[in-house]
Amino acid sequence: MPQDDDRFEPRLGHARRDSAGRVGGRAGKGRALKGRILEQVARRGGKPRGAGPKIDGAAGPRSGRFNARGRGAKLAASFPRGSGWSFDRGSGLRVRPRRVTVKARVVKLAGKAQAAAAHVRYLERDGTARDGEPGRFYATFADDADAKAFLERGAEDRHQFRLIVSPEDGRAFEDLKGFTRDLMARMEEDLGTTLDWVAVDHFDTGHPHSHILIRGKTEDGRTLNIAGDYIAHGIRHRGSQIMTRALGPQSEIEVRQQLQQEVEAERLTRLDRSLIRLARDNTVDLGRLDPAQAGDLDYRQLLVGRARVLERMELATKAGPLAWTLDPETEQVLSAMGRRGDIIRTLHRDMARASWRDLKLRMPSPDEAPERLVIHGLPQGRGAKQAPEALTGPIIGQVVARGTADEEHERRYLVVEGIDARRHYIDIGHIREPTPQGALVRLEPRVAAVREVDRTVATIAEASGGRYTIDIHLKHDATATEDFARAHERRLEAIRRATGRIGREPDGTWRIAPDHLGTVLAYEQRRIDAEPVKVEVLSPRPIAQLVHVHAETWLDRELQAGCPTPFASGGYGAEVRKALALRQQWLVEQELAVRQDGDVVYRQGMLRSLRARELRAVAGQLANDLGLPFAEAKEGRPIEGTYRRTVNLTSGRFALIEKSREFTLVPWRPELEKHLGRKVAGIMRSTGSISWTLGRERGGPSIGM
């Protein structure tokens, strides 16, 4: 029988006329009507794909895109979905299977070889093993599996399965290799194929877990599709069976002990979820609940204890002898408090390593004053009802920690000792650029905004019936060049690939909707969610090492600035003040500055002179390595050659351009990375920046830098 939730009855209104005056319209109109009906079903909580009665009374898919045709579907349907409690006659106690958490993703691999390799490097990062060493991959028969070879075998696969498996009792094991191998063996039996997989165990959080990568191929080379229900329930069920067999079932006494520890916890707990579920209009009366709702007397006592703790936190108010009214934001506030506690523990772990101690930094504590430790995006301090502090302006400081903010989505964090004498924790999203410990950085929040190029496209399309091409652009604006218009096309292509909301005709004409700028804004917000801040490395070396270096440094730029950055009188701000004074004295000694009437005057061209000193020193070393002489880039002179690699200097990041008989070093730009190993050409401007033409073709795209 079909589910009642699957039934719906459309209420038909009067038939509308199309633009030609016909009633009902063409088949396309019928499809549009169907789309509107399914949209309304979705808005009312229904499932558009499953709307209407099912053939032969089938229940329809419950989860996952591979549900209908994937392996393990029938087997997953036979697994129990309940809590699993049963009565053990031997002990006289109620028991249940051990619990295992599984998070799974199906990752498309087409064109993402670099991202897959970066994911492997991320899993092998330092400090994830139990002894603090880097993570090491293993497989069915190897304790030191070659992850690079695994990626090469799956280079042509359509997709890859990524699992994070975390047994609740994982700390009871020295490692998780045996558990993971048993789990993969059971999965192979269930799915009817040998699996090609590698895994790595992580112990750098409070819950030991295994990251498992599975190729999307069966043993006979066909595409491996796993049923969504098996991914959602079957893997967890098999893991639970293995843990229960190893440790025995979990008794109600163990569960009670775990819950007792949650009564005073400063985070969202199972007891909180029970109180929220039992509340009516945010009020829960534990004295009048049916035992079937609130459990036995012992469990109700735990709920009463937790409610009293929430009252102390000002998240609940007394409404009767055993009744409390919960704050509407209880769940969100407790989640934020738990996140803050997790962050503090992570900082303790990361900064306890010897490399952090070298920076002579004080450990943060859970009671850290909010004016000293700022966790951006979360309420500051331990108080429950506090507004989160967002990152609204730039922060300059020294990197003291970098780590994982969210393992499942591979988000990173930075901890920066700021020149404002505060320590800042910032979620930097998916940014992968290196930020060495001790480096001086500038962090600035990104803001979603429509660009001028987007407004130009919208304006031209509005005047051209919703169409855009390079020819239309050039006719609309006689001053525009073809390269300028082509940049607008590249912008449209980037948005189309990311959103799918911009159409293109076979002849290359772009279809621009009236709400194009709204689409652009949503695209920009999505990018900001992935990388919410801009990270600029001002110096890869600690500030104290810049005082006597023969190179252009951030200290020099600050000394020459008309409006220097304000520094706090204490903390890291005081260190920067001291470094600036010492650097100023060094510049005077080097005759790059002079003292006049109690003031310091910097010689014209000081920064260029410092930059040239470092370039000459580094170029001499590179000349010996490459066997080629160094040719300095000069204003107005063409620069041609093959972009070989980047060279990180104190003065900044440079690109090494190699010709047949010489090489040169020029300021690096991110756009060059797409042309590594290829021919590039450009001209140095008077400002020191370069106007690049990528490739030998003079008509190719030009990038001014």
Describe the protein in words.
- The relative contact order is 0.05.
- The chain has 19 helices and 27 strands.
- The strands form 7 sheets. The chain has a 6-stranded mixed β-sheet. The protein has a 6-stranded antiparallel β-sheet with strand order 24-23-22-25-26-27, with helices on one face.
- The protein folds into 7 domains: 4-57, no CATH class; 86-250, BirA Bifunctional Protein, domain 2 (2-Layer Sandwich), CATH 3.30.930.30; 263-325; 333-430, no CATH class; 452-530, Orthogonal Bundle (Arc Repressor Mutant, subunit A), CATH 1.10.10; 541-603, no CATH class; 608-704, OB fold (Dihydrolipoamide Acetyltransferase, E2P) (Beta Barrel).
- The termini are far apart.
- Helix 8 (270-278) packs across helix 10 (297-312), helix 13 (452-462) packs across helix 15 (482-499) and helix 17 packs across helix 18 (571-589).
- The radius of gyration is 31 Å and the shape is globular.
- The model is unreliable at 1-6, 14-31, 42-66 and 695-705 (pLDDT under 50).
- By secondary structure, it is an alpha+beta fold.
